[in-house]
Amino acid sequence: MSNIPAELKYVSSHEWLRLEADGTVTVGITEHAQELLGDIVFVELPAVGSALGDGEQAGVVESVKAASDIYAPIAGEVLEVNAELEATPDLANSEPYGAGWFFKIKPANAADLDKLLDAAAYAAEIGA
Q: Which of the residues bear the PTM N6-lipoyllysine (predicted)?
């Protein structure tokens, strides 16, 4: 069964969000998503400085099984991407909630975080 940290927020498309102390939001894919994908071999991340709309495609993950889009879980500006993940994409498999994060975003509206799934709601959604 997938690990679903209680302190994170989630969206149905299997991205997680962590609100940082400075008000930025770190985004990655859930353990459940990486389990479905299998061994991740390539990650394409959004450009730093790009403005993303809620639900807009932000990147692509390719695995030995499939390619899957990564979506912006909230609207905002991309402040940073995980360059280490581009060089070592399997970090998304081994550390999906740690070193395998994808990008950091400055939310256009911090209240958007309140509309996201908590751990219990995400677990129910994936049948965990």
A: 65
At residue 59, the pLDDT reads: 95
d(CA 99, CA 127): 26
CA dist 45 and 27 (Å) reads: 11
Cα dist from 84 to 7, 28, 41, 87, 92, whole Å? 24, 13, 13, 5, 10
What are the start-end ranges of the H helices in the chain?
31-37, 83-87, 91-94, 119-126
What is the C-alpha separation between 127 and 70, in angstroms, rounded?
A: 21
For the stretch 60-118, pLDDT in tens is: 999 998 999 999 999 999 999 999 998 999 999 999 999 999 999 999 999 999 999 99
